[in-house]
Amino acid sequence: QLQLVESGGGLVQPGGSLRLSCVASGFTLDYYRIGWFRQAPGKEREGVSCISRGSGRTNYADSVKGRFTISRDNAKNTVYLQMNGLKPEDTAVYYCAAVLTPVQNTCIMTSSFYTSWGQGTQVTVSS
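Now predict its structure.
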């Protein structure tokens, strides 16, 4: 059974850092495009970042560019989201998502393109 499990969320002060992990089981991440999304209370889910199959391409939302870094370790079947310089507006539930693709070096931060989702991990940025 294909499963994604996020971890690494928590409470952090403004300016702090967190590293989110997304571990896949039941399939090999090598062949998948991966995205990170977030949803704050009362708001729609938004794309944060994505990484292509082959890791040749990454994209970021303008709101996180320069602060967040996405990476993948196929040997560990894990994708990471390093979040630095966190702001209160980054508070949300963060989800990772995956979609099988034959295409390398492209990624899209549109939730409808992704077919498998994790359960989410809460990130709260507050003093």
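The chain is about 0% helix and 50% strand.
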